[in-house]
Amino acid sequence: MSFARNKLYIGTNFKMYKNITETEQYLQALAIKTTDLAREEVCVFAIPSYTALHAASLVVDPEQILLGAQNVFWEDAGPFTGEVSPLMLKEIGVKIVELGHSERRQYFGENDFRINKKVLSCLAHGFIVLLCVGETEEDKQLKITAERLGLQLKIALNGVQDKRLSQLWIAYEPVWAIGEQGTPASPEYANTIHKILRNTLVTMFPERGAGIPILYGGSVNKENAVELIKQPEIDGLFIGRAAWDASRFNEIIRAVLPIWRSKTSKLLSV
Ligand code: PGA
Prior knowledge:
Layout: E1 8-13, H1 20-33, E2 42-47, H2 50-59, E3 65-69, H3 86-91, E4 96-99, H4 102-107, H5 112-124, E5 128-133, H6 137-141, H7 145-156, E6 168-172, H8 187-204, E7 214-217, H9 222-230, E8 236-239, H10 246-269
Parallel strand pairs: 1-2, 1-8, 2-3, 3-4, 4-5, 5-6, 6-7, 7-8
The structure holds 2-phosphoglycolic acid (PGA).
């Protein structure tokens, strides 16, 4: 197992929730609750809204909690009203950029080709890219999940150089599993799809594809988190609603960490 997968990745996207004060309070509480966790084995991250990011960067120690942005534009500067540049994110110490979340694809016309430009720009600027992929309910019914995910990966990651792969994380988030109306994927289903994603990554990047962390997201909660993390192909969890309270998020982290540890030691001993 490569270094990049030798860690539990666990984080949350606040979507369009939490103002500045709420974000600061959340992050301060989470930092205190998770202060004893060894960051060599667990990477905790949070992705606030743009307006709260700067304030968040002032209260968070990046050694403890990595901060991410929910989107970015690919150009450094220019006449692009309403957009935020990678340089602006760098200026405030953001480490991760989340790209391709299904809500951006669904409501804001994000497509794989635009995501590809953003991926290349973010990697060149030194960010960790958290690329979200996932099939819709319709894709699943039509049994084109593997094809859909293959297209998403192959287009979004077109032109990525091997040397940049240590900056890449993938989140598998089936669209039908996300949000209030979503049903979480069964751990077995998620594991099978992670394996398909892994195979595609290895085909695309024979040298380094095996080392890219793949996180699962979509209605993760305290009840299903442990079974999900037991799966050999699941390297981490990307959580929405169930992590928006710092205590509950901390409980999930503590529930899954020992499971992840024993899984990893078994995988390493094979
Ligand atoms: P959820 O959100 O955990 O609330 O379903 C997941 C996501 O959108 O990443």
